[in-house]
Amino acid sequence: MRMKAYRREAMQRQYAQELEDEEKYFQIDHEVMYKKGDPGTVEGIVRDHSTVGYFVTLPNKREGFLACSQLGCSGGIPLLKRLYKVGDEITVRAEIVGDGGRDRLYTRKDS
Length: 111
Fold this sequence. Notes:
111 residues; 28% helix; 27% strand; nucleic acid binding; S1 motif domain-containing protein; NA-bd_OB-fold; S1_domain
């Protein structure tokens, strides 16, 4: 029983270290991202962030969710705060999901 707890703690420390390294060194690959003016894209404003992505207000006043996996990272508030701040403009492709829900947003051309 003790060995399992020791191993679990070691795995948690390793995971925390990996997240910390990602937070320090992660850079967005702008080559695979949509650029302003690309067909089918819109400019959204980052309204808020969570541990797994951003809430973005679109020009049509709808709200969309941009998952951190679209940026190529695993998330976390410190990392996401560093990449985009509230009020930043971001180029996205929106996929409408139902009438009242949030739209799905994409930033990568390969998705």
